[in-house]
Every structure is written in structure tokens, then in C-alpha cells.
Amino acid sequence: MQNITFQVQRDKLADTRLISSDISPLQPGQVLLKIDQFALTANNITYGVVGDQMGYWHFFPAEDHWGILPVWGLADVVKSQNEKVAVGERFYGYYPMSEYLVVKAANVNAYGFLDVSAHRKALPLLYNRYSNVAQEAAYANSSAALQMIFRPLFITAFLLDDMLLAQDLFQAKQVVLTSASSKTAFTLALLLARHAERDFKIIGFTSKRNVGFVNGLDCYDTVIEYENLNELSDILTVIVDFSGNRGVLLSLQKRLANHLKFTSKVGMVHHDQRDGDGEVKGEFFFAPAYAEQRLKDWTAAGFQERSGAAWQHFLAVGGNWLTINKTLGLANLDSIYQKVLNGTADAKIGQIVRV
Length: 355
Hints:
By secondary structure, the chain is an alpha/beta fold. The protein has helices at 42-49, 51-54, 125-128, 144-166, 183-193, 211-217, 246-256, 287-317, 333-342; strands spanning 2-9, 12-22, 30-40, 66-67, 70-80, 90-96, 100-109, 112-115, 129-132, 174-177, 201-206, 222-225, 237-241, 260-265, 283-284, 323-328, 349-354. Helix 6 (211-217) links the parallel strand 11 (201-206) and strand 12 (222-225). The longest helix has 31 residues, at 287-317.
């Protein structure tokens, strides 16, 4: 059997190719998954931008200077050498931009399994778990696309919300979210806004072309264009950065001066503007590591209970503003991939690729 894969140059993400490779016969314990569909967001671009530093290229290795960007999606079992995983079962999880994926399933139960393939054993468990959709009704109905697009982004926002509240917002009275139109940013804004009797403001920083969209989300107390930095109040501030834009962050640091309490670096929407002179203060937020700590603190059941309640809140207040665009086939993937890469994809549209 042949497998078609969409690959990108690791040091030049705009360069792409489709490559065909043989699928080896399955070994005991292995399962062949046929990828049906996956979501494509700016989050996937971040995987590529920090792929070398954070290990994202190791999940689905490619040759030489090429890489395979991970995505979140749905796949069906078409062959199995694992008696606990049946042909026809459907799983949500972390996939390559490919037609197929071979996994070695372990810790199998009714809810899913872990991929313990040799090259993935040292990688974060959060990315190695595949969920059986038979146990999650949301994937069997019209919200499947919403789940694929938002679930990984939501978990990052949920963990950020928890981290900020656990630190009492570092004593800040306003939280500034850059790239406020990005899905992870406004998901975090919605979660922050749900806390009763909050005594802090939620500020969305965005480009001029996205101001109308961000205002329409109705989840920020104030929306400010990047060019109007002086509109920012002189009070103690936390920045959660989804832009990766060095110039924006340096300007915020200078503007806020001693009022800046903490900066959490999360995303790379403006990945092409992260280089330059000047030290950007703050810490990179690695969601899988924080998730593993909270799983220990709360247990898996406690984590599910807390994140599930927050997800239901998000669904209730997030609105139905998102339009789904479906791209058919990996051969047609590059055009929408380039738009997501360079930041020109419409924020009001969620991108689903049907393999």
C-alpha cells in the first residue's frame, strides 16, 4: 500500500511537497489508521515554528530537512494486528497530514489507547493518546468539526486560565491578549470572563483589519489596535502572547515598563516577525507539561470534570459565528495552508481538510 503525505521544509515552512511512500506490513500490536479529516489552524503553524525546540517534528519523522506538521483529526481503523483494537473503530487524536498512520496501540480500553511506537515513547502523553469516538457523542454529530478545530486550542486556553488564576494573575489588574482574533486567544478570553466577581480587565490586541471581528466576539472588555498602544491603561498587567511578534512585545514592554508583571509566550501567529534585536521578557507556556502536572494534582477524573465544565461553558457562550470550510484532498491542501501560514485566512472560517 502507498501513503501520500503533505510535507514542509522545516526551516522554510512555505515550501511544501506531496510524497508517496510504502506502508510496511503491520507488526504485532500495530494498527493502520486511515485518516478521514483534520483541522488546520494557526496552532499547527506554531508546531512547525518551534518544532526543533519543542520536539514536534519527532512525532511523524520525515527525511532530511523535511517535516510533517501534526494536526488534530479523525481516523478509522482499516487493518489491525492488535486484538483489542477492531477494524472500523474511529479515533480522535494527533495525526500527520497524510492518508494513513501506523500506530502501536497499548493501554487499550473502551475510551482509547496510547501509541507506544519507539519514536514516540519519550514524547508527551497528551499527544500520544487516541480517543475512541464511540465514547464521545460529540464526534458523531454536527459538532465534530467544532471539536477538531477547538479542542486542542481549548485545552491550551483552559490550562492558561488555570495557571493565571492559580498565580492570582501575578497581582495584575488587566490581561492583554495579543493576536486577539486567534481562536486560542478568544477562547482564553471567554474562559477568563466567566469567573465570578473578577476584578481585572481583558484587553484584546489585534490588527486594524480584525478589529470588527474581535469586537463582534463580545469577549473582551476593550479591543485595541496594535497602532494605538497609548490607549492601554497604566495599571499592573499580564501579557499572554499569541503573536510571536517581537516588535509588538517590545513596544508593550516599553509602554508598560514597571506595570508589566508577567508575559506568557504561547503562539506564533506572526511567526515571520519573531526575529530582531531586543530581549523579550517572559516564559514559554508548554501546555503538555502543565497538563501532566494537573493530571497528577487532580487525577484524570478531576481533570476531565474541570475541563468538561469549562468546555460546556465555551459551547454555551461561544456563539455560532464560525463557518466551516472543507478542503477536499491533500492535493488541494497547499492553497489554504499558505493562507493559514501567512495569516491571511479569514478568522471567521474554520478550516477542515477531508483527506
